[in-house]
Design a protein that fits this description.
The structure is a single chain. This protein is an alpha/beta fold. It is built from 19 helices and 27 strands. Strands 10, 11, 12, 13, 15, 16, 17 and 21 form an 8-stranded mixed β-sheet that branches. It has an 8-stranded mixed β-sheet with strand order 25-23-22-18-19-20-26-27, sandwiched between helices. Helix 3 runs antiparallel to helix 4 and helix 15 packs parallel to helix 16. The radius of gyration is 28 Å and the shape is globular.
């Protein structure tokens, strides 16, 4: 058969032009979060929440991703130094634009708040009575805990905390008030005054929203930092305040943790502490700050103009989350969607018997997370349960999971817990959990050297009728009862012998000098996991025909690994139809002629954080469905222990396929990625044509309460994105 020109043409599918830079893609994701904060169709309190999330996302981005690029850029011996410099310049341009849009969105949201009787006042807009009241409140309740630091005369300078707000004052100080070093007189002006800089850290234990007025009709606040600025004369008597500003810094928190066989927890603790002294990667301050203060801050923090971010709105916009929770804003929040009991456990009776009958699928947060906790609590008290093994990556502050594990150990069960200490920014909390678990008699391990354990697994070993029976829970999300109400994840309870044997082997891999000789149903090891995914994609290429093209449908948090993307490009070139739903980072460019024509990428940002990982392969009609703890990122596929597990039960497989149908039908909250790396949306004018995935799932979960365990599924036709008019 004669080859076409397309087939003859050799194309380098690793060419950078076919890939969107990871960090720029992340900024695009945060832009999509911001768009929810700007969306007038989103309830006002929820807009405030999205604006706050945009800010906290950006904070972490600078602490980690910008910090990592900065480290490379500063190392002139690194071959990637110039590329890192170019990337930092692009990041700065995009991030500054994002901050400007965010500031406008905050101003708009605060304007709408004032229309319903809630105001965040500027000090100059308050009447004399309010100012007198606030000054009295300041003297009694705030002034006693404040400290003013004479920056120019302190050696060494205090260590300013990352992300803490600080008031900066430019003062005229009488020369006789200064402390002289080595009896050397300070340089005085002709009138006996010296200009000095002073800092006042804003206390973090106080609410930043200080009530000014509260009546049935009106609720007025002033920001704590503004209250401090306008009453700072009480902290600096005898000095004249020439100018002031509020600022905060973001430090490099991309700290490598050395892995040593002894005192590993101590190594993690030291690494966490070292973050407090690392370089500043961002300086935020008010717009129109005094030039003298601005220049001094840039010099002290050793930052460039590119690393300075100015805003006319309050710094640290996470305060908007606090504002969104004001009781008066309850009517302006999303209508509550209470999680319902899982459909698979309706009238289930004994949980062990139910799991043995068929696998149980849990779809959070539409369905309750409580069955997971209850299963563990039941096992902790069950005299027939011999051992419990569990992984913990991120868990809540008052975790019922940890309490149940401690209870199990106190009841004489063999309890093994893997606590991943390196879960970024949760290290200190996880160290505290390890101490409590160890004190209760649990066997606590920290994982395998060289790999972060990101897998989500629980194994219960029970004696039944003289033999050993295993029960397993696997999940796409963490064992965290708090985030299970906010994150969309899928969990699976099973007694399948092959899967439970694999999970037992997985824990043996973690706890001893064990080498897995093969897995029955799971894929765990990093090298095998990446190979498995690429083999599944290549199999789809092999079985695909013009009459029956292959199909791949995937839902992920992030897609970044270039080997996987290259395999997807090859599949597209062979006619495989590929649908990708990617919440965050997506480095693949869909819709490139001859490269990715058959790939469609969507993203959903809505009231719940989309967190599940689902993989579907048509496989010539012999369909396969998988769930996983892993995204298609190099860190997941090469540097972490993850679990990819199949959905084997036919009813459960159909449920997951239905989930994918709904996700790819969303035309209300979904956006589509084009070949230029731009995200587009187009909501149908006709209400009857609108599909909002999370709303569909909520309604179906509620309806399922009055239906059989496996209700008939309602399939929704796919909706293609419409061109902008």
């Amino acid at each position: 058969m004669r080859k076409t020109k397309t087939e003859k043409k050799l194309v380098d599918l690793y060419d950078p032009k076919y890939y969107i830079p990871r960090d720029l893609s992340w900024l695009e994701f945060n832009e999509r979060v911001l768009l929810e904060g700007l969306n007038p169709q989103v309830p006002l309190a929820e807009r405030l929440n999205f604006l706050a999330i945009t800010g906290s996302n950006l904070d972490e981005f600078f602490k980690v991703r910008v910090a990592a690029a900065r480290q490379i850029a500063q190392d002139k011996n690194d071959a990637n130094s110039k590329a890192a410099e170019d990337l930092l310049e692009k990041i700065s341009k995009s991030a500054h634009t994002l901050v400007e849009e965010q500031s406008k969105g905050i101003a708009d949201a605060l304007g709408h708040l004032s229309e319903i009787g809630i105001r965040v006042l500027r000090y100059r807009d308050m009447d004399r009575k309010s100012k007198l009241y606030l000054r009295s409140h300041f003297e009694k309740n705030i002034l006693p805990i404040l400290s003013s630091f004479a920056v120019d005369d302190l050696n060494p300078m205090p260590l300013w905390t990352s992300l803490q707000l600080i008031v900066a004052l430019y003062l005229r100080v009488p020369a006789h008030l200064l402390q002289y070093k080595d009896d050397e007189p300070a340089t005085e002006s002709r009138d006996g005054y010296v200009e000095k800089l002073a800092f006042i850290p804003v206390p973090t234990q106080l609410s930043r929203l200080v009530v000014v007025t509260e009546t049935e009709e009106q609720l007025d606040f002033v920001m704590l930092e503004h209250l401090i600025v306008n009453n700072a004369d009480l902290l600096c008597p005898g000095c004249e305040i020439l100018s002031h500003t509020v600022f905060r810094i973001t430090r490099d928190e991309d700290v490598a943790i050395e892995e040593t066989p002894h005192n590993y927890a101590q190594q993690v603790h030291q690494a966490v502490q070292s973050r407090k002294r690392r370089d500043v990667v961002r300086l935020e301050m008010f717009t129109r700050s005094d030039k003298r203060i601005r220049e001094r801050l840039m010099e002290m923090m050793n930052v460039t103009e590119q690393e300075v971010y100015e805003s006319s709105m309050p710094l640290d916009v996470t305060v908007l989350g606090e504002l969104a929770r004001v009781p008066r804003l309850a009517p302006y929040q999303y209508e509550p969607w209470a999680p319902v009991p899982p459909a698979d456990l309706t009238d289930a009776g004994d949980i062990y018997e139910r799991i043995q009958q068929d696998d149980v699928l849990l779809f959070h947060p539409y369905e309750q997370f409580t069955p997971v906790v209850e299963l563990l609590e039941k096992a902790a008290s069950d005299p027939d349960v011999m051992a419990i093994k569990q992984t913990l990556y991120r868990t809540s502050g008052n975790s019922p999971i940890v309490k149940a594990l401690i209870k199990a150990a106190n009841n004489g069960k063999e309890v093994v817990v893997l606590v991943e200490l390196r879960a970024r920014f949760d290290e200190e909390r996880n160290i505290r959990w390890t101490e409590q678990l160890e004190n209760a008699g649990c066997h606590v391990i920290y994982g395998i050297s060289g790999f972060k354990t990101h897998a989500k697994a629980m194994l219960i070993i029970r004696r039944e009728k003289g033999r050993i029976q295993r029960y397993v829970h696997l999940s796409t999300g963490n064992y965290n009862d708090k985030t299970a109400k906010l994150y969309s994840d899928i969990g699976l309870m099973t007694a399948n012998r092959e899967i439970t044997a694999d999970v037992a082997a997985f824990f043996n891999l973690l706890t001893g000098y064990s080498e897995c000789v093969g897995w029955n149903r799971l894929t765990v090891e990093p090298v095998l996991l990446k190979r498995k995914f690429i083999e599944l994609i290549e199999r789809e290429i092999t079985v695909s025909t013009p009459e029956q093209p292959g199909q791949i449908r995937v839902k992920l948090n992030s897609l970044e690994d270039r080997d996987v993307i290259e395999a997807l490009y090859r599949a597209s070139r062979k006619g495989v139809k590929i649908d990708l739903n990617i919440r965050g980072i997506c480095c693949l460019r869909p819709g490139i002629a001859g490269i990715s024509d058959n790939i469609r990428v969507t993203s959903i940002i809505d009231r719940y954080l989309e967190h599940s990982r689902i993989f579907y392969f048509r496989n010539g009609g012999d369909e396969e469905v998988y769930l996983a703890s892993a995204d298609w990122m190099t860190r997941n596929l090469e540097h972490r222990l993850e679990i990819l597990f199949p959905v084997l039960s036919p009813p459960q497989k159909q449920r997951v396929l239905h989930f994918l149908d709904v996700y790819f039908s969303d035309n209300v909250k979904a956006r589509w990625l084009d070949a230029k790396g731009e995200w587009k949306s187009k909501m149908p004018r006709n209400l009857a044509d609108r599909v909002r995935a999370q709303e569909v799932f909520h309604l179906e979960a509620v309806e399922a309460q009055s239906q059989p365990i496996h209700p008939p599924l309602r399939y929704i036709p796919l909706v293609k994105p419409k061109e902008d008019e």
